UniProtKB/TrEMBL annotation:
The keyword RNA-binding does not apply. This is Uncharacterized protein. Belongs to the carotenoid oxygenase family. Its cofactor is Fe(2+). The lineage of its organism: Eukaryota, Cryptophyceae, Cryptomonadales, Hemiselmidaceae, Hemiselmis. Fe cation binds at residue 41. Keywords: Iron, Metal-binding, Oxidoreductase. Binds 1 Fe(2+) ion per subunit. GO terms for molecular function: carotenoid dioxygenase activity; metal ion binding. Signal peptide: none annotated. It comes from Hemiselmis tepida.
Length: 102
C-alpha cells in the first residue's frame, strides 16, 4: 500500500491521510484538521503510526497578492507539532506533540 499526507492551498484548514491499496484504489481518505494551511513535505510510516508534521511554513495569501510564485512562508504564529496517527485511526486519535520550530 502507499500512504500520503495531502493538502490543498484552497482548503487551508485540512490535511488528508490517504492510503492507496495494491490495486491502486483509494482505501482511506481521513481528514485531519489543522490551522493556517501548513505545507507538508514529508511523512513517516511505522508499523503502528503515520507521523504527521505540522510545521510553521504555511500558506500566505499576502504572498500571492504581492506576486510571489511560491505562496508559502514562515509563520511565527503557527506552532510546530508532530502528530502520531494510528494507521487505522481517525483524526480524533492523533497524539500531538509540540516541538521546537525548525
Amino acid at each position: 500500500e502507499m500512504h500520503a499526507i495531502c493538502y490543498e492551498s484552497q482548503q487551508t484548514n485540512l490535511l488528508w491521510h490517504k492510503v492507496l491499496g495494491a490495486d491502486g484504489r483509494v482505501r482511506r481518505d481521513e481528514p485531519i484538521p489543522v490551522e493556517h494551511g501548513p505545507m507538508v513535505h514529508d511523512c513517516m510510516i511505522t508499523p503502528k503510526y503515520v507521523i504527521v508534521m505540522d510545521l510553521p511554513v504555511t500558506f500566505s495569501m499576502s504572498a500571492i497578492i504581492s506576486g510571489m510564485s511560491f505562496p508559502y512562508r514562515w509563520n511565527e504564529n503557527h506552532k510546530a507539532r508532530i502528530g502520531l496517527l494510528p494507521r487505522e485511526g481517525s483524526a480524533d486519535d492523533i497524539i500531538w506533540c509540540d516541538v521546537d520550530p525548525c
